[in-house]
Model the fold of this input.
Amino acid sequence: MDGVELQILWSNIIGIVSEQARALQRIAFSPIVREAGDLANGLFDEKARMVAQAVTGTPGHINSLAAAASNLLAEIDTSTLKPGDVLITNDPWMSAGHFFDITILSPIFRHDRIIGYAGSTIHHTDIGGYGIGSGARDIHEEGLWIPVMKLYEEGRPNKTLFDIIKRNVRTPDALMGDLGAQVSSGMIAAERLNALCDRYKLDDISSLSEEIISRSENAMRDRIRQLPSGTYHGSSEFDVSGGHVITLKTAVTIDADAGEITIDFEGSSGPSHMGINVVPAYTHAYATFAVRSTLNPDLPNNAGSLAPIKLKLPDECVVNARYPSPVNARHVVGMYVPFPVLKALAQVVPDEVVAEGSGAVWTIQIQGRDAAGKPFTSSMFNYSGGMGARAKKPGLSAICYPTGVSAVPVEVLEASYPIVFTCKELERGTGGEGKQTGGDGQRIGYRMRTNSNWLLNSVPSRLKSRPEGLLGGADGAAGRFEINGKPISDTRKMEMQPGDEVFMVTPGGGGFGAA
Done:
């Protein structure tokens, strides 16, 4: 395909997925989708290969969505799909790793033939069960499990499925509204893709997708071939709720001849009794993110650029969750996956990596009744710490790395829920010193406007362990979590009193290089 023609068509494709994501955010009910961008949108070809992703989205969602399309379609006979059909699942092993993340996949028809699929995954407000925390003992306590089904059949809603979902969640209006936003965004993608085919007189996008995916794969392999072959090791250690220590180890093997990288997690911690276990697709998502963002960040993220990166996972491992392991707070471990990979890559491309940061975002979910007696359940909202320093720049402060979600403004949260913030500011000096200084964490305080007891689900990490500096840089500061001034380490679902104040200081990032 001519390079100019390809660039024009590629720009159109990116425009389609970006409009798909913007529509989803505009229509969504929940602040975590509308304000924070905790979502993923992707366009797939007729073979269910991801061709392009929207510029908005998290690595954990988008790279899991890349695998989810083929997983969903393997469960059904695609020849039975009709225009107006919409597929749904929140199966953790098929998609993004826990029940809150619901994946929608809509076939795109042209002249009665499927030419592609529009997919989206977003974090929903509530899915019943335990909530966002890590306290469930097995996956069946964690909420409603939706197998691969048709949410819509030829444009008609599946009433039975809708009724089951609404009856099993605490906030059905919010969940139904967000599902509607996902379905609508898929309809927009289908409309725009057909318009592209009309404009450029294409019967389908098979040749275009093949060109994009093959060029992306070749470019990624060429970049890997520039590296020295060998096996390089990295390790990261951190504590989670209750003081439990998790270790992630990686052996990153570079095969320059084949243009491939294999990441082996042998030696990492075994399965956890808490809901922090990570399914393979989510582990793959953040491991590939670490490699892709380091070696070739400008390359399109699609099935081609992801293909040269392979994973090996031990059978008994916290990042290879097996049924019926609890997984609701899988991000607490999953967002640390890039760090041992980056430490291994630092031995090869030290100027391209970052030091350890605060790691997983600190997630909060609140439930109860407001002063008027009206029940409320918040979606997960996140607080970030400092990012690790880079070779030539300091780390960013209070940034959600590696997930990339935005913080929901306190004004939006206070307008949406009976919560009032007592402080939210940077905690200066928490970033590690070095040639480049790590980013600072932040302090957040809040209490609830309620006359009755309320429930708090909170999942902090690094309350003891400090984010490590890299290549001589100093460690960042550990975090703090307090209730009414008293330090708390085990933060699984707690019953709170009216007037209780929660205070948090998120960790700082590690420094880079000796000062």
Remarks:
- Residues 3-215 form one domain.
- The chain has eleven helices and 21 strands.
- The chain has two domains: 3-215, 354-515.
